[in-house]
Amino acid sequence: MCADCHSTGLRKGYDLAADSYHTTASDLDVACEACHGPGAAHVAWAKAGAKPGGNGLTVALHARPDRWGETDSRGIRRHLGAVDETEQQVCAPCHARRRTLSDGADAGSPLLDTHMPSLLDETLYHADGQIQDEVFEVGSFLQSRMQRAGVTCSDCHEPHGLALRAEGNALCAQCHLPERFDAPAHHRHAEGTEAAQCVTCHMPTRTYMGVHVRRDHGFRLPAPRQAAAVGAPDPCTRCHADKGAEWAGKAVAAWTGGKRKPQPPGFAAALAAGRRGSPQAAQALAAAAGDGVNPAIARATALSLLARTPDPKTLTALQAGLDDPDPLVRLGALRGLEPYPPGERRRALGLLRDPVKAVRIEAARLLAATIHPGTEGLKPALDEWVAAERANAERPESHLNLGTLWAELGRLPEAEDAFRTALRLDPRFAPAMLNLADLYRVQHRDGEAHSLLRQAVATAPDDADAHFALGLCLVRLGQRAEAVPPWPGRWPCAPATPASPAPTNWSCRRLERGEQAVKLSPGVILTTSDEG
Q1: C-alpha 134 chain-centroid distance
Q2: Hey, is 344 helix, strand or coil?
Q3: Which of 77, 131, 185, 235 has the smallest CB count inside 10 Å?
Q4: What are phi and psi of 250, to 5 degrees?
Q5: In this structure, are residues 57 and 36 in contact, taking their beta carbons and an 8 Å threshold?
């Protein structure tokens, strides 16, 4: 997994039958061809005298310093001409949280043709888009106004020497007038201190694996109160932990005399509501997805979260997402359609022939079990999806995905083989156990399912799905009493400990089967049914 980005020309060469690798690489480092593609034509050009008119590089990257004009009234340089995303596509595969779609990819290929990028998923990003898990840089950079203004990676990073273009605030001063921005009137801290550095407030850090300090590339404005409202960190209270978000919010507002308030991401509240399953979430997510001011990755995430609160009223937003010009948004809309019946899923039929591979295979996965196998575009897109899973055949998750697909298509022997392969690769992979047990249920093989689910509960005792599936299996086997055992864990009114004393008016004992209501203290009643 690491070698994919830390080598050049890598081919994994995994053999599933032997569970072994024959991995090759042209360089055990990030060499020229990692970014510029095959270099034979470039070498030939150089040997021929390096004549003007082209250097033979497969992927030519040019800094083009002339693309930046004079500063505007804000004191910020304006980008000239169209925004070129070539460089971003070269850097993205190794600087994004993503999943590969093939064993090896050509440099410069569009990211969504070679990889499936993560959206602003709950375990990866905070609701306002700030980095949480190790997600590298691209996901946050795609949210930034800098990216939309035409800034590229090499504007700040020197790709060959691996250094920054300048040190400290001089890096930002390439585009932001230092007289206006690198001054106490702007940053409101003592000059020469860490707090006066642009990155301290606009690119806060997070440390991974105990040693790796990574900066958020969202370049967002500090918004303490808004961050606190969605449970996200903010740079102000990071330094002023004793003050709190309310104090920090007032301080930021006071700097501008209340004339201009920091604008938090317009999608933060919607994503937070969607994650919580709030009753108002669907409407908020639909609005966030339809707001063109929000970055595409946030709009896509909002659409994907609509899957948690399916509502006919939100189908309009999902349809708009399916028709959106940005492939990330189309990807999010496909995920949002997941819980809808076949008739509604068919809205995505046109995306089976989408120009972007990641969108095609997501559409194929969504539609595979709901439309006729001969539907135009389905087989090629589904073949691409299966090939992408097999390209990651060393991962048990890939075989889980394949098994789920085969089961949905009624190809039960293939499904069983895929689930068993996942467990061969990882005998403790509980999701494969649960899906294989469900496959046995469909085939009336509850005895085999029971044994497997016992193993799943023993392997993953904190997995609620495993306990639930085992309970249902026991009911089918006629073991109803065992299917609903008393909860073995700590009861809410468990005896107090010195570390967590209980209120003095509490008393507690476990109610036995068939016992009637017991009065514990004034106003507190616990009851139990005959089922426990």
Answers
A1: 10
A2: helix
A3: 185
A4: -65, -40
A5: yes
Length of the chain: 532
DSSP code per residue over 117-133 = E--S-TTTB-TTS-B-S
Mean pLDDT by 10 residues, the chain (532 residues): 91 95 94 93 93 88 81 92 86 95 89 96 97 96 94 92 94 95 94 95 94 94 92 94 92 78 80 94 96 96 96 93 98 97 95 98 96 94 97 97 96 98 97 97 96 96 95 95 70 44 44 48 48 40
- Letter for the amino acid at 32? C
Torsion of CA 255, 261, 264, 266, to 10 degrees: -170
- Distance (Å, whole) CA 510 – CA 486: 9
Distance CA 108, CA 388 (A): 19
> What letter does residue 511 receive in the DSSP assignment?
P
Phi–psi pair at 170, nearest 5 degrees: -65, -25
What is d(CA 156, CA 203) in angstroms, rounded to the nearest whole number?
13
pTM of the full predicted structure? 0.87
Instruction: Check if the beta carbon of residue 433 is closer than 8 Å to that of residue 452.
Output: yes
CA dist., res. 445 & res. 452, Å (int): 11
d(CA 61, CA 158): 12
How do 212-215 and 205-208 pair as beta strands? Answer: antiparallel
CA 499, 504, 505, 511 dihedral sign is positive
Residue 115 CB contacts under 8 Å (≥ 6 apart), including other chains: 92, 93, 96, 98, 99, 100, 101, 105, 358
Cβ contact 167:197 at 8 Å: no
Rg, C-alpha atoms of the chain: 28
Do 22 and 13 form a contact (C-beta atoms < 8 A)?
yes
Assign 335 to helix, strand or coil: helix
Contact predicate 347/318, CB 8 Å: yes
Single-letter residue type at 325: P
Q: What are the strands, taking DSSP E only, across 440-531?
A: 518-521, 524-526
State the Cα–Cα distance between residues 285 and 305, nearest whole angstrom.
7
C-alpha 224/C-alpha 261 separation (Å) is: 11
